[in-house]
């Protein structure tokens, strides 16, 4: 409990010091090439007028007034914002499709393992019927053999006049 309280106090103290806004450095306007501009994550290079400007953090994406997406560079000079958005959307879509496929596959496997399906029940019934018929045939065969033994006097415990001949 005390460690949780200590962590909470530290979080509030550290969070309180970071919540004060510090002015952004004006180094973006000093950059003259794309490579020097995009080294800072706060800067955005625009190829329409070859200028480096502060990234508009008030918006998710730079507005057309700041710089058109096809001419804006951020992070690296060889990828524009349109390609970056398309690539990120494709990556996110692929991850979502893969994740949903894995979830569906796991759900189907769990459902399949939870109980026997109709095919397994049908096969089990057929197996039981075959086993029962086999036992009936064995009983019939044994009764026929016993009848034949009685007829020819081959019963070991019988009182019939004929016994099996034994050589000594």
Task: Please provide a written account of the structure.
- This protein has a domain at 24-84.
- The N and C termini lie far apart (96 Å).
- Helix content is 54%, strand content 10%.
- The longest helix is centred in the C-terminal third of the chain and has 35 residues, at 118-152.
- The chain has four helices and four strands.
- Strands 2-1-3-4 form a four-stranded antiparallel β-sheet.
- It is of the alpha+beta class and 168 residues long.
- A hairpin with a 4-residue loop joins β1 and β2 (51-54).
- It has helices spanning 2-18, 34-37, 81-114, 118-152; strands at 43-46, 51-54, 72-74, 76-80.
Task: Compose a concise summary of this entry.
It is built from 4 helices and 4 strands. The longest helix has 35 residues. The chain is rod-shaped, with a radius of gyration of 43 Å.
Report the helical percentage: 40-55%
The largest sheet, given as strand count, sense and whether it forms a barrel, is: 4 strands, antiparallel
**Could you spell the SSE succession in H and E letters?**
HHEEEEHH
Unreliable spans are: 15-25
Structural class: alpha+beta
Strand content: 5-15%
Tell me, briefly, the overall form: rod-shaped
Protein name: Pituitary tumor-transforming gene 1 protein-interacting protein-like
Biased composition (Basic and acidic residues): 121-144
Organism: Muraenolepis orangiensis (Patagonian moray cod)
InterPro entries: PTTG1IP
């Amino acid at each position: 409990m005390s460690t949780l309280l200590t962590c909470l106090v530290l979080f509030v103290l550290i969070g309180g010091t970071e919540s004060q806004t510090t002015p952004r450095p004006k180094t973006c306007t000093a950059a003259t090439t794309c490579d020097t501009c995009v080294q800072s994550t706060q800067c955005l290079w625009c190829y329409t007028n070859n200028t480096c400007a502060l990234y508009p953090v008030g918006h998710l994406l730079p507005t057309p007034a700041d710089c058109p997406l096809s001419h804006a560079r951020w992070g690296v000079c060889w990828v524009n914002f349109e390609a970056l958005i398309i690539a990120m959307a494709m990556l996110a879509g692929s991850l979502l499709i893969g994740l949903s496929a894995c979830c569906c596959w796991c759900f189907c496997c769990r459902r399949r393992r939870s109980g026997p399906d109709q095919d397994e029940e049908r096969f089990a019934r057929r197996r039981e019927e075959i086993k029962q018929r086999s036992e009936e045939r064995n009983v019939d065969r044994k009764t026929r053999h016993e009848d034949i033994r009685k007829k020819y006097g081959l019963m070991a415990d019988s009182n019939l006049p004929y016994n099996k001949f034994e050589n000594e």
